[in-house]
Amino acid sequence: MSENCLFCKIAKGEIPSRKVYEDDDFLAFHDINPAAPVHLLLVPRKHIVSLEDVTAADAGWLGRMVSLVPRLASENGCSPGPEGGFRLVSNAGKDGGQEVAHLHFHILGGPRPWQARLATLAS
Ligand code: AMP
Ligand code: ZN
After folding, report:
1. Which of 54, 55, 71, 98 fits 91 for a cystine, CB–CB 3.0-4.6 Å?
2. Is 71 domain-assigned?
3. What are 9-61's pLDDT values in tens digits?
4. To the nearest whole number, what is the mean pLDDT of the chain?
5. Is the CB–ligand 1 distance for residue 33 below 6 Å?
6. Which domain does 48 fall in, by range?
């Protein structure tokens, strides 16, 4: 837990979210300002700022986090197969467009067109 971290507070239930998944290590919830018909955020419960802070020692939990992505996408409205699919985005740092300093994956999908905001978030 990092003081005043929005996603730590959401992970602890101190700030409400539209949760779609949780386990001992991770939490997924709907982005409050969706940029696509499906827009989830997947976060680790432990506070880590961004992918810039990841090392080989993090391969285990990070691999588990990545492996949740296709399941969460399909369970929340992304069609499987080449006509469907999803986009995975993780912004790191100011130049990466990161606003919340707690590592998170954006899982984006659903029928196109998506919002123009994606031009800055995820193109
Ligand atoms: P980033 O710019 O990659 O740091 O993304 C932060 C994301 O968090 C943005 O897409 C916001 O819309 C989203 N966000 C901010 N506050 C909340 C909240 N309280 N609940 C859900 N999503 C949020
Ligand atoms: Zn945090």
Report:
1. 98
2. yes
3. 999 999 999 999 999 999 999 999 999 999 999 999 999 999 999 999 999 99
4. 93
5. yes
6. 6-122
Tell me how many domains the chain contains: 1
How far is the centre of ligand 1, averaged over its atoms, from the C-alpha of 52 (Å)? 19
| Residue 88 belongs to a domain | yes
* Nearest listed ligand to the Cα of residue 5: 2
Q: How many CB atoms lie within 10 A of CB 94?
A: 8
Is residue 1 a part of any domain in this protein?
no
Cα(53)–Cα(68) distance, rounded to whole angstroms?
21
Counting other chains too, the contacts that 19-25 makes at CB distance below 8 Å and 24 or more residues apart are 20/72, 20/75, 20/76, 21/68, 21/72, 21/75, 25/61, 25/64, 25/65
Total count of residues recorded for the chain: 123
* Adjacency order of strands within the sheet including 38-44: 19-22, 26-30, 38-44, 105-109, 86-89
